[in-house]
Amino acid sequence: MTLTLYAATTNPGKLRDFSIAAADSGIRIEPLPNPRAIPAPEEDQPTFEGNARLKAAYYSRFTAGLVLADDSGLEVDALQGEPGVRSARYAQDAGYVPPSASRTLTTDERNNLYLLDRMTDKAQRTARYHCVLALAQGGEVLVTADGRVEGEILTAPRGTGGFGYDPLFFLPALHRTMAEVSLEEKHTLSHRGRAFRALLPQLENTLR
Fold this sequence. Notes:
This protein has helices at 12-22, 48-59, 90-94, 107-118, 183-189, 191-207; strands at 3-7, 27-31, 66-76, 126-137, 140-153, 169-171, 176-177. The chain is an alpha/beta fold. It has one domain (3-207): Maf protein (Alpha-Beta Complex), CATH 3.90.950. Strands 2-1-3-4-5-6-7 form a 7-stranded mixed beta sheet. Strand 6 (169-171) and strand 7 form a beta hairpin. The radius of gyration is 17 Å and the shape is globular.
């Protein structure tokens, strides 16, 4: 029988990443039933693990199934770990007003522009994607797992795939950005894929 995990996210990119990561494990990833009808909790924890645990425990109270939640983002060394847990709201939190544009910018585009602005004249470009997954049921966190991928921040975006900071996140070993790799490659490289693979043996032990 196929095991189903309900992902506590409405982000299509995250759902896709989790589905690809789970494809070889016989696990099915489904969005949490009717997530927009559930008031979102305040993600007020200072760490990825804290927010992942908070969300998993909270959303698992609305279904009998196993709920998977993540908190993830970009950590830039020259910015002392920014944007970190504020990655999705980086530009918004800073009140950043981008230069005049010919069209309305997406949240991802604004975040990327703000990151480039913050990285002006920074010689150190090292950074990492960091993801923590938490799995919960009935309001109780069962297991957590961690995944990271190291890279560098470019001075201009490259590639049209992925989402978030992917066009700026350069993988030196591949000479490509995360936005230039295929979905299959991203599964083997990404912080979410690595976190999910680290979760699997813990999940198996928990369900025995």
